[in-house]
Write a structure and sequence with these properties.
- The protein has 30 helices and six strands.
- By secondary structure, the protein is mostly helical.
- It has a six-stranded mixed β-sheet, with helices on both faces.
- Strand 5 and strand 6 form a beta hairpin.
- The N terminus is likely disordered.
Length: about 600
């Protein structure tokens, strides 16, 4: 008697057998099951008729328990252990089931048992097994599995190859991920997606865009959601707004009904590329929002200095019945800090602790210290740090030191600096801030002592770089850049800008230069800070009146801040700069940070 066709896809790989009428009935009933209770009833019938010894019937039973959304891995394992000499398919099924249930260690243990029992793995064994290895960051085990794949001659299987690329990427070994990708004889969209995701895992955003361009050149382009979401993340980190817009358009053209994760990624991209209005518009149009959507919008509004709007969005979140987590509250407290909302900030802090039962982290305390510092309540900020239930880190003390610099409080500033140095701070900016405070107070001996200590420790400033997008290409400039392909044109533009700045009263702030050189050399070094080079490039290559968007890796120095305010007036441009801390919107000679950053 011929076997009844298998319709359910999870049964598609089962071995082919001639079945008795009883077996056909049991398997037919299994396919209709919607709960583990119903499976147990069928299991009882299988035992009654003595069919469990039949590998096909037993396999159907294990598959139903292990891979159904309502299934039970415990029950699947109990059946598996009753089967004499389970074959490859059954081991594969249990491995897949454990991965589905995020039991990451069990697949590796099952694989070891499989090898001990002399059962040969096949190409279906390795994708879920490698996924489990990647989730455990088990690189040594993953490399051993790669060796087994090679030994069995399965390295040419496209699914195994993509799984290897994903595993190496998530385990942080981009060299081996790239090696596997290069060995792929016929790259598919899935192969490109895997290697791009591997680079994204390590924050190699430039490489993500380069790989995407290579993919298009090879004619493998297809609007696949996973690739586009990864590219959105790359645009977010690089400040590539125009490229992000084109990816958004591609999503709308090719994918109907963007899900909440994709929409949240788009909001995050627009907000982090300086286009807050577009991000807010997308957020308001979302048919469904989750706490991640609200978190992205609240944090975005905070970064742009719109504290009250951020609190309004937070209220909407609570009205919707969503429960905020610690990450959401970091955004809320940061919003209060950026807008100087002292009372509201402490009310939110109390609400977090007592209403939502969230234990404050060092990030939450850091926001409160910054909030008090901005308001000039430096003694209160110091007392708050002393009362913290957890040890304050360098960010907390640095926030207090920065506030003391702005408000000229030498005494509290020394306390903050002393605690920073006790934490073995290797940040030269801490020494620079303190030494400049001594210089402003005309304490020249202390100024010399700090500068000498800085020099003796051999600390150097992290090289600053700025990125600007022009014609959908992101250009990167480093300070004192003499090697850029368009160096001559940019430097000529810098000279023109300097000439006009002199007539408008700009004077370089040479206190920001660490090197022990004369004033003229200090002015020359300030002239070629990366932000100024990026602005010059944008002025050359963008149309008059269009906004300029720049992303920096470091906090903006006071000289670049003053310089950019003047440029916004002279060239009648809005200049939006994202530094390590926040967004600065320069327009008509003023900045949205109100000169506190």
């Amino acid at each position: 008697m011929s076997r009844t066709p298998v319709l359910n896809p999870i049964f598609a790989q089962l071995p082919q057998f001639n079945l008795s009428l009883k077996e056909q009935q049991c398997i037919s009933f299994l396919k209709r099951c919607n709960s583990i209770k119903e499976v147990k009833q069928i299991h009882a019938q299988i035992l009654k008729f003595g069919l469990l010894s039949d590998s096909f019937c037993a396999a159907n039973l294990v598959v139903t328990c292990a891979l159904s959304d309502w299934g039970s891995m415990d029950y699947a394992c109990s059946i598996f252990h009753q089967i004499h000499q389970p074959a490859t398919f059954l081991f594969n099924t249990l491995i897949r089931g454990h991965v589905k249930d995020t039991n990451w260690e069990q697949p590796l243990l099952l694989y070891c048992q499989m090898l001990r029992n002399g059962v040969d793995p096949d190409n279906f064994t390795y994708p879920p097994l490698l996924k489990a290895s990647s989730r455990l960051s088990a690189l040594p085990e993953g490399m051993q599995i790669h060796g087994h794949v090679f030994k069995l001659g399965l390295q040419g299987d496209v699914f195994v190859q993509n799984s290897l690329i994903n595993m190496y990427g998530k385990c942080g070994n981009i060299e081996l991920a790239s090696h596997v990708f290069r060995q792929t004889l016929q790259t598919s969209v899935a192969s490109w997606s895997a290697i791009i995701a591997a680079h994204a895992t390590l924050g190699m955003w430039w490489d993500c865009l380069e790989l995407f361009r290579d993919m298009i050149k090879q004619g493998c382009w297809r609007a696949e959601e996973s690739i586009l979401v990864t590219l959105i993340s790359a645009c977010t980190h690089l400040g590539a707004l125009d490229l992000g817009r084109s990816i958004h358009a591609s999503l709308l053209r090719n994918i109907s009904g963007l899900n909440v994760i994709v929409e949240t990624s788009l909001i995050d991209m627009y907000v982090n590329c300086g286009c807050l209005v577009r991000g807010l518009s997308l957020f308001r149009k979302m048919p469904e929002k989750n706490h991640l959507s609200y978190s992205a919008m609240i944090s975005g509004l905070a970064m742009h200095g719109h504290g009250r709007k951020a609190l309004e969005v937070f209220d909407q979140m609570l009205e919707q019945g969503l429960v905020p987590d610690d990450v959401v509250y970091v955004g809320v407290l940061s919003a209060c800090s950026q807008a100087g909302l002292v009372d509201e900030g402490f009310q939110c802090f109390d609400r977090m602790k007592y209403e939502h039962g969230i234990e404050p982290t060092v990030q939450h305390y850091g926001c409160l210290v910054d909030l008090l510092g901005r308001a000039g309540l430096l003694n209160e900020a110091l007392e708050l740090i002393k009362s913290m239930q957890i040890k304050p880190n360098d960010v907390v003390w640095r926030s207090l030191l920065s506030a003391c610099r702005v408000h000229g409080n030498m005494e509290t500033g020394e306390v903050a600096a002393r605690n920073l140095f006790q934490l073995n701070s290797q940040n030269p900016s801490d020494y620079l801030v303190l030494s400049n405070m001594y210089a402003k107070a005309q304490k020249w001996d202390d100024f010399a002592r700090i500068r000498t200590e800085l020099a003796s420790k051999g600390l150097t400033q992290t090289p600053g770089f700025s990125m600007v997008e022009v014609e959908r290409k992101v250009k990167k400039f480093v300070s004192q850049d003499m090697l850029h392909p368009q160096c001559d044109g940019v430097h000529e533009m810098i000279h023109q800008m300097e000439w006009q700045l002199r007539f408008d009263g700009y004077s370089p702030d040479t206190s920001q230069v660490l090197l022990g050189v004369d004033e003229e050399e200090k002015r020359e070094r300030l002239k070629y800070h990366s932000q100024k080079l990026a602005i010059a490039f944008a002025l050359i290559h963008t149309s008059k009146g269009s906004p300029i968007r720049i992303t920096r890796n470091l906090r903006m120095c006071s000289d670049c801040h003053t310089y950019t305010k003047y440029i916004s007036v002279i060239y009648e441009r809005e200049i939006i700069v994202k530094d390590r801390n926040r967004f600065h919107h320069f327009k008509d000679g003023t900045c949205s940070c109100r000169d506190y950053w």
